[in-house]
Specification:
Blueprint lengths: L9 H9 L4 E5 L3 E6 L2 E6 L4 E5 L1 H11 L4 H12 L3 H17 L3 E5 L1
Antiparallel strand pairs: 1-5, 2-3, 3-4
Helix pairs in contact: 1-4, 2-3, 3-4
Length: about 110
């Protein structure tokens, strides 16, 4: 979902999976996003890099802007796209890890 030749850090995903879901994320002050019909485009102003994602990425980004918990993001993905919770969790974790790796979001412990 996040394109810009991003290599996903599997350790970051494992860490998120193994922790309780009592954390949320906030958008980096250096990230600016533009939502559109097919998804989202995100600019990291500090790095001068542009990232794009599809509708599911846009849904996750909006949830992060609203400071939803990881579990809340997963539930919304499952409901909106009518997919199993486990599938929604995997896709959400992958996308969130990529956003975090690119310094577009930060993790906040509740």
């Amino acid at each position: 979902p996040l394109s810009s030749c991003v290599l996903i850090d599997r350790k970051r995903i494992t860490d998120m999976t193994n922790q309780t879901s009592n954390f949320s994320f906030s958008v980096s002050p250096e990230a600016t996003a533009s939502l559109h019909h097919d998804g989202i485009v995100i600019l990291h102003t500090g790095k001068g890099r542009v990232f794009s994602a599809n509708k599911s990425g846009a849904l996750i980004w909006r949830g992060i802007e609203q400071r939803r918990s990881l579990d809340g993001l997963v539930e919304e993905m499952s409901r909106e796209f009518q997919i199993a919770g486990a599938t929604a969790r995997t896709h959400t974790l992958n996308f969130v890890a990529a956003l975090e790796q690119q310094a577009l979001i930060q993790r906040e412990i509740a």
